[in-house]
Every structure is written in structure tokens, then in C-alpha cells.
Amino acid sequence: MRISTFIFRGGGIVVLALLCLTAVQAKEKTHFEFNMSYLVPSQAPAITLRNFPLSIREVPLHDDDGYLSGCPDAVSPLPDTAIMYRRPTQYFWVRVFWTPWQFCGIGPQYTYMSYFQNGNGEPGGSDSPERYQQNQYGTDSRGYGTSLRYYEPRIAGSSLGLAGFVASPWLHIFRIPYTEAVSDRRKRGWLVSRLKLGGSYDLVGAAVHVESGYDRWGYDQTWKELELGRVNKRNLSLTWEVGFSGADDDPLTIVGQVMYVRTFYRLEGAHSLQISPVKDDLIAFGLSVYAL
């Protein structure tokens, strides 16, 4: 682990912990925030990986293709090349914040990014733009009766991390009358709004697997699969919240959120493997419920 990474992680935890401990000393009521946010998949980057190790590219000649042993492009290691992922079809996170005071919170985060992938044995695998493939002539053209040798990365969808925020005071815009369901009493809540500055980082990133093998008659046969590292994400976000807050004896607050998110990507434990882009900017939408 690099010193800068350690400082980023440790410093962030210390700052958030101090803020929250200061809030506890103020004897405020402890709240929890339940948050789910959806990032627009069309904005997410198509991740590119390069510098794949030789061990995954040395795909031997298929047993049924022995007559091609004299063709150099049928037996030599597959060349290294950039592999472009498709954009994810789902991208969201779920957070539970402990908010001992209303201006700060800290808690765990679960992130899910779903990339389109062709699994082992599924037809049409070689048509995926996420893989490198080669026939006995050194091209990617599909023929008849011989195998296409290929390699292709796959990234697991889930990661676990830690998130936190600091926020401005609630702005009470105007009162909203409503009826309490149990006692049928008239009460008055508030339309509220505020800004939040947040951040998160992955403690357990998404695993990067690279699969190599053969495409025969449109079906994949796996030769080898290796885990080459993990993709860790760091997020910085600016959030605008607006929603409804109950009366003083009704602590429930429900808000909608619009977020600007900058994400930094880092590939850890991957040795020669490299990832790009290293950062991107996204728009996300969320829903939070604050409760005692």
C-alpha cells in the first residue's frame, strides 16, 4: 500500500471521527440515514485494461486443431492489446450513515456495477467487444472448423467501502400541514433543503478476472482464469437534498437527492496490468430516510 493511500484513508477516518465525537459531546440525538443512490449508467466510462501478463496470453493450440501446428499465428502467444469494456447496465450504491449530529455522518457503503459479460459456454462470445480474439492467420475473422483463441477480462460487480459526509444546516423553506394517521391530529411539517459534501472509498474493491480459452462454433471453452487485482474507487460528491421533515415529535425526514460525483479509479495488486480512465464525472440521483 502506498503512503499516500494510507494517509488518504487514515486521514479521512480521523476527520470524520472527530466531527462525530464532537457532535456526541453536544448531546444531540443520534440519528441514522438510510440512503440509496442510482448513478446514470450512460455516463459511466468504458473501462480499458492493458498490459496483460504473458501467462494469460499463452493459449495453446486446441487439441482438435493439431494440423495447424505449423502456423505461427496459431501457436504463438496472443499479443497484448487494449480491451474496452461496455458501459454498465446498472450502477448504484446503498449506504447506512450514523449521524450523531445533523452536520456529519459516517457508515458502510455497498456498490454494485453491472457490466455486460458473456459467460463460459454462452453462444456468441466472440462477438463481444470486451475481448481479444485471433484465428490461425492472426486476424479476428470467424472461420469454420477451427478455434478462435481469446482472452477477456471480467470485473466483479460488487465492492464494499466506507462513506461519510459533512452538511450545511437544514433550511426550512415553509411549513406543510398534514394529518397524523393514528390520532388524526393536524400537524405541521417542513419542506427542507440543504447541501452535503461527501466522500467514499472502497475497502474491498471489485475483483478483476481474466479468462482465456477457445471459441468453437460460437461457444466458449475456458482454458485458464486468473484474478489479477482489484479495482478500488474513490468518490467525492456534492449533493443537494430537498424533501419533507416531520414535526418536532415526528423525527422522520425523507429527501430526494441530486449529486455531482467525481470518481477516481485505482487498480491494486495487479502488477503489470493498467487501467484507464483514472477518473470520471457522473450525475447521480438518490433517496434518503433520516430516523431516530
Short description:
The chain is built from 3 helices and 15 strands. With 292 residues, the chain is mostly beta strands.
Your description of this structure?
This protein is mainly β and 292 residues long. It has one domain (3-291). 11% of the residues lie in helices and 53% in strands. The protein contains three helices and 15 strands. The protein has an eight-stranded antiparallel beta barrel with strand order 1-4-5-8-10-12-13-15. It has a three-stranded antiparallel sheet with strand order 3-2-14, with no helix packed on it. The longest helix has 23 residues, at 3-25. The protein is elongated. 28% of the residues are buried.
Task: Give the helix/strand layout.
Elements: H1 3-25, E1 31-39, E2 48-50, H2 54-57, H3 72-75, E3 83-84, E4 90-101, E5 104-114, E6 132-134, E7 148-155, E8 158-167, E9 171-179, E10 186-204, E11 206-216, E12 219-245, E13 253-268, E14 274-276, E15 279-291
Antiparallel strand pairs: 1-4, 1-15, 2-3, 2-14, 4-5, 5-8, 6-7, 7-11, 8-10, 9-10, 10-12, 11-12, 12-13, 13-15
- Multimeric state: single chain
Structural class: mainly beta
Annotation, overall tally of beta strands? 15
Structural domains: how many: 1
Instruction: Give the termini separation.
Output: 38 Å
What does the overall shape look like? Answer: elongated
User: If you average the pLDDT, what whole number results?
Assistant: 79
Task: Summarize this structure as a short list of keywords or feature phrases.
disordered N terminus, 8-stranded antiparallel β-barrel, 292 residues, mainly beta, single chain, 3-stranded antiparallel sheet
